[in-house]
Every structure is written in structure tokens, then in C-alpha cells.
Automatic annotation (TrEMBL):
<dbReference type="InterPro" id="IPR006917">
    <property type="entry name" value="SOUL_heme-bd"/>
</dbReference>
<dbReference type="Pfam" id="PF04832">
    <property type="entry name" value="SOUL"/>
</dbReference>
<protein>
    <recommendedName>
        <fullName>Heme-binding protein</fullName>
    </recommendedName>
</protein>
<dbReference type="InterPro" id="IPR011256">
    <property type="entry name" value="Reg_factor_effector_dom_sf"/>
</dbReference>
Length: 186
């Protein structure tokens, strides 16, 4: 069973990646310290608590995929931001305030994102390998990266590694006119 995902349109394809225009969506987000592999584990309980009545509305909330993890850009230490994507049919005003002040709600704006999909385990080594490949492909295609790379996990932890869908996502500058698709299709 797969979870719903934020709405996006594939606007072009590059060398091993696709460019997606995401519509705005809401997330529950928390900051955690630690290494790459421990970040999601440390954040997961906090975020699960929020969607399972750990909120001021005492409501259960469904979640969507993916679970996103990325380095906090405003922090030189080893902090990570981890996000649960909230259902797109719920406006931010509908979502109850978190009971835990370390959980924040925010809207991710419409944006252009390069996505490289891969299967396998959740190790930092595998992620870094695919992150480097995506960043190199974007540089080769002349696209300007404007956001921190995101590790996106689409499956539950009990799914065997070889069946897991993972992605590296990175926001890129939308320097083209709004009606023009970048000439990347190969």
C-alpha cells in the first residue's frame, strides 16, 4: 500500500532525473541533532506523536509520503530537519497546533524540484552517492541549485531495502518563463 504524495507535474527529464513543479503542501517539521542515520529515528517518534493525537486538537491525522530529511541551512552544527507531509486536502488552518513545541507546521511553497529516484537501503553512503550524481547532472545541464538536497523516504521501515523507493530532491532556480519548459528531455 502506498501513501498519497504531494501534487506535482513533471515538466522535463534530464540525465537520470526529472524536473517537477510541486504545488504548495503542508508539513509537520522538527529539528534534531545527530548523525544522518540517527536523525530520522530521533525525529520519527516526535512526528508520529503529533499525528497520533499529540496535538492541541487531540486528533489523529493521516500522513502522506515522503518523509523528508535535510541539513538545517541556518545551523553549522549537525542539525537535521525532518518533515512529515500532511494531507493536501487539509489547509494549514485546519491542522491542530502541535502539543510539542519542537514540532512546527509550515507550508512549502510552489517550486521547481529536480528528483533522482533510486531503490535500496537508507544508508548515508547510498544517499550521498545519488546526491552527488544528481548535483553533477544539474551542473552539467546548467541548472542552478537554490536549496539544500533532501533525502526523501517513501516506504515504511519494515519494507525490505531492495523494495524501498527513495529520492534525492533539490530545488532549482526557475529561470525560464513560466510557460516554457527547460529543454532537457533526452
Amino acid at each position: 500500500m502506498s501513501l498519497p504524495e504531494p501534487d506535482f507535474e513533471v515538466v522535463a527529464k534530464g540525465d537520470g532525473y526529472e524536473l517537477r513543479r510541486y504545488e504548495p503542501f503542508n508539513v509537520a517539521q522538527t529539528r534534531v541533532a545527530g548523525d544522518f542515520d540517527g536523525a530520522t529515528e530521533n525525529a520519527f517518534e516526535r512526528l508520529v506523536d503529533y499525528i497520533q493525537r499529540g496535538n492541541r486538537g487531540n486528533r489523529n491525522l493521516p500522513m502522506m509520503a515522503p518523509v523528508n530529511q535535510f541539513r538545517a541551512e541556518d545551523d553549522a552544527s549537525s542539525s537535521w530537519l525532518v518533515q512529515f507531509v500532511m494531507p493536501t486536502e487539509y489547509p494549514l488552518s485546519y491542522l491542530p497546533a502541535p502539543a510539542d513545541e519542537r514540532v512546527l507546521l509550515q507550508t512549502m511553497p510552489e517550486r521547481l524540484v529536480a528528483a533522482l529516484r533510486y531503490r535500496g537501503g537508507w544508508s548515508e553512503e547510498r544517499y550521498r552517492e545519488h546526491e552527488a550524481a544528481l548535483l553533477q547532472a544539474l551542473e552539467d545541464d546548467g541548472l542552478r541549485v537554490i536549496g539544500a538536497p533532501v533525502f526523501a523516504r517513501y516506504n515504511a521501515p519494515f519494507v525490505p531495502g531492495f523494495l524501498r523507493r527513495n529520492e534525492v530532491l533539490v530545488e532549482v532556480a526557475d529561470d525560464s518563463p513560466s510557460d516554457e519548459v527547460p529543454p532537457l528531455d533526452r
